[in-house]
Amino acid sequence: MMVFRSSAAICGALVALSMSVTTARSEAGAIHSNESVSAASGDAIVGAASMYNPFRPGWREGSRKTASGERYDPSVWAAAIKTSLRQKFGGVQYGARPKYALVEAVGKKVIVKINDVGPLTPGRIIDLNERTMRHFDPSLKLGVLHGVSVRPLSGDGWVPGPVG
């Protein structure tokens, strides 16, 4: 009985360790090199970006459910692309594999999961979730980022987060 408890404790510790390593890997960012991202990216779309968070009082549009079927999560690296760009980004659809994009602004780059679409405010090409917008605008005071470049990424082996 004591051997079983020890084995269970060790197994639990290994599972916790592997989960923390996976989380640390995705949080560390810069997992993908600039070269690998550039090689897999499509043509850039340049425009303005804004943010939405349906869980914050007073914030504009956005549903708590995304087009992919996921619940909106302000703590992950995600975004909604303009509805008219849906096909350029592989057709974001309910239950489909996630699509990824490289977003560049203010001298920073980040890979985001495109898990939603929307009509967006005219002139805007992408709505960033709160975490992603804070990467570009830590105080969230700008409201809109102009000159944002968004490139679809081919494949599905991307880890969202900053690119170094």
Q: How would you describe this structure to a colleague?
A:
The N and C termini lie far apart (50 Å). A hairpin with a 2-residue loop joins strand 3 (99-105) and strand 4 (108-118). The chain has 3 helices and 7 strands, in the order H-H-E-E-E-E-E-H-E-E. The chain is an alpha+beta fold. It has helices at 2-28, 34-40, 130-136; strands at 45-51, 78-82, 99-105, 108-118, 124-128, 145-153, 161-162. The longest helix is centred in the first third of the chain and has 27 residues, at 2-28.
Order of strands side by side in the largest beta sheet?
A: 1-5-2-4-3-6
Fraction of helical residues: 25-40%
- Major β-sheet profile: 6 strands, mixed, barrel
Q: What's the total number of strands? A: 7
Radius of gyration: 18 Å
The helix/strand order is: HHEEEEEHEE
Backbone structural class: alpha+beta
Helix count, per DSSP?
3
Mean pLDDT: 76
Amount of beta strand: 25-35%
Shape: globular
How far is the first residue's CA from the last residue's CA? 50 Å
Low-confidence runs = 8-30
In short:
The protein contains 3 helices and 7 strands, in the order H-H-E-E-E-E-E-H-E-E. The protein has helices at residues 2-28, 34-40, 130-136, and strands at 45-51, 78-82, 99-105, 108-118, 124-128, 145-153, 161-162. Strands 1-5-2-4-3-6 form a 6-stranded mixed β-barrel.
Features:
28% strand, 25% helix, 3 helices, six-stranded mixed β-barrel, alpha+beta, 164 residues, globular, single chain, 7 strands
